[in-house]
Amino acid sequence: MSSPALGSARRPWLLLAPTLAVIGILLLWPMVRVVLLSFQDFGLRELVRGGAEFVAIDNYRDVLTDDRLWRVALPNTAIFALVCVVLTVAVGTLVALLLHRLSPGWRTLVTMSVMAAWAVPAVTGTYVWVYLFDARAGFLTGVLGQLGLVDVATQNLFTERGWFYAIATLNVVHHGFPFVAVTVLAGLMTIPTELPEAAMIDGANAWQRFRHITVPMLRPVFAIVTILSTIWDFKVFTQIYLMPGGDGSNREVLNLGTWSYITAMSQNKFGLGAAIAVLLTLLLLAITAVYLRTLFKEEEL
Amino acid sequence: MRRLLGRSGLVLASLTVVVFSIFPVFVMLGTALDPAANAGGRGVIPSGISFEHFARIFSQTRFPDYLLNSLIVAVVTVVASGLLALFAAVAVARFRFSGRTKILMMILIVQMVPMEALVIPLFLQARNLGLLNSLLGLSVVYIAFSLSFAIWTLRGFVAAVPVELEEAAYLDGASWWQMFWKVLFPLVAPGLVAVSVFSFILAWNEFIFALTFMADDDMYTAAVGLRTFFTRSGTDWGAVMAASSIITVPVMIFFVAVQSRLSSGLMAGATKG
Questions:
Q1: Taking the CB of residue A158, how many other CB atoms lie within 10 A of it?
Q2: Of the candidates A27, B23, B35, B68, which lies 20 to 30 Å from A49 by C-alpha distance?
């Protein structure tokens, strides 16, 4: 700190001021506001005239006693997320193990295609899957029809909750596995080759080497990709909203994200929508906390 | 024999991954180029190559306007968030002041806040400020959501610039601002490229806020404007896929270009959702 220019005590705060203002107004205050809203009866009238009545926990009571939460939105969120996370991490890890064994030329080819899958925006990617499963024109609907799984003449897959979420799972896993593959591959590169070689000499097969060398050494990497995938897959919005019926016209396929959005934006029940958004965020925080605790306990990081 | 089997197994597995990965992009481009895209066949192999869907969306739909809106929003986001993040990164990397660590932690933690959870309060706030239906209003939201990652990334780049270079500039009589623009700025340019790509992709791909803020169909971004091809009388799949290709290809080029330069960890979380 020899230079007088560096010594200026006010300069760092001047440099930080615009950032702090943006974060404060656009991230921190809205976080407070969404919690405040969730305790208010905020509808169209309040939107126009301003002011809102404090209704304590009425919104939360309404949500938690709503049959739609327990029968529709929560299962559609939690079971879907669970399946997506397991599949994303499994597929991503398998692709990483494959990439690790490939020659440089093949590895570049496969990495480039995996990157291409990653780069497809959620919006356009979702429209492709919708097109592929379209009742009239869908290629994959045709394949399912050939396999006898679907009656192409009468069935529209998007109207059935199970099929709807199966298609959404395919979409989300396809979009999510490249991140896992690339991250796990980076982890695999850090394992010294002597370890698996020594194990091989000791007669360990591929599964034993994976189970007893790769998994323990990459535990932090797996923890990170699992936590991030869980957070992403719990709050999936675009991929559901853009599928036929996902925008609220089919109530059976609502998840917590789309339910919150539709309650606020289409029905103008901003307080109730905010309460659902807060519950979703609390759920995410709880899951992250549990993961981190398990991780810290095992690893003493 | 076992070795040969292993080799062909690897090739087979590789080809499976390649086909699975690029299948949607292949279908997107194939349908966009297929003159019979709206005929209702179940094929994915184009019946021919034609640019008629591209010509149609540019001459007969609002898509060019939507593309321009997206471009404006993305450029404003990239420039503003890059500049703000660079200022903040210099502050936390070059100065020691009380509260520095707390601010860094705060910036890290706000990145965890899901965008989706803030759409309701930000909609009400933007409505009060008259920022709905405005490209600026939308850009401001994207600036907020791209700042955190940008600051943390640029912080590393700024810290890597030797302090001696700054001191040399002062010895030559430069003021702090001259030093900032002439010395620091060019040296952290590669970092700025990286965070620019990140904020561009965020602004270009984003859907919920673009959907919520733009009630007027003049102001749609490209990602939201795709909805206009879904009508009561049916879906113009040729137009959807042609427009989707135009949205997807620049992102893909950026992505692959940056991937070769950046470690995977840096891009983590950059493009999800």
A1: 20
A2: A27
Query: Do the Cβ atoms of A34 and B21 come within 8 Å?
Result: no
Beta strand residue intervals within chain A, DSSP E: 40-41, 53-54
Residue B210, token pair as written in the block: 């673009």
Question: How far apart are the C-alpha atoms of A135 and A155, rounded to whole Å?
Answer: 7
Q: Find the CATH number of the domain harbouring A100.
A: 1.10.3720.10
Answer yes or no: do B272 and A238 touch at CB < 8 A: no
In the block, tokens 């199966």 appear at A166
- Residue B125 and residue A93: Cα distance in Å, rounded? 43
The structure tokens 């620049």 sit at B250
**Residue A29 CB: number of other CB atoms within 10 A?**
15
Report the alpha-carbon distance of residue B213 to residue B191 in Å, rounded: 31
Record: contact B97-A98, CB cut-off 8 A: no
B256's tokens: 């692959």
Q: Decide: helix, strand or coil at residue A98.
A: helix
Residues of B in contact with A109 (CB under 8 A): 14, 18
Answer yes or no: is A93 within a domain.
Answer: yes
**If we measure between CA atoms, which residue out of B54, B77, B118, B227 comes closest to residue A34?**
B118
Handedness of CA A262, A267, A268, A270 (dihedral sign): negative
Model ipTM over 0.85: yes
Q: Which residue of B has its CA nearest to A99?
A: B14
Kindly provide the residue ranges of all beta strands, DSSP E only, lying in chain B, ordered along the sequence: 230-231, 234-235
DSSP B219: S
Contact A33 B124 (CB under 8 A): yes
Q: Domain span at residue A163?
A: 38-299
Of B244, B238, B264, B195, nearest to B55 (Cα)? B238
Residue A113 inside a domain? The answer is yes
A1 falls within a domain: no
Of A23, A116, A277, the CB nearest to B147: A23
Out of 2.60.40.10, 1.10.3720.10, 3.50.50.60, 3.30.110.170, the CATH code matching B61-267 is 1.10.3720.10
CA B264, B249, B61: angle at the middle one, nearest 5? 145
| Number of domains composing chain A | 1
Amino acid at B128: N
pTM over 0.80: yes
Distance CA B18, CA A181 (A): 13
- Cα(A179)–Cα(A177) distance, rounded to whole angstroms? 6
Per-residue pLDDT of chain A (301 residues), as tens digits, is 444 444 578 889 999 999 999 999 999 999 999 999 999 998 888 888 877 888 889 999 999 999 999 999 999 999 999 999 999 999 999 999 999 999 888 998 999 999 999 999 999 999 999 999 998 889 999 999 999 998 888 889 999 999 999 999 999 999 999 999 999 999 998 888 888 889 889 888 888 988 888 888 898 889 889 988 998 999 999 999 999 999 999 999 999 999 999 999 999 999 999 999 999 999 988 988 888 787 777 655 4
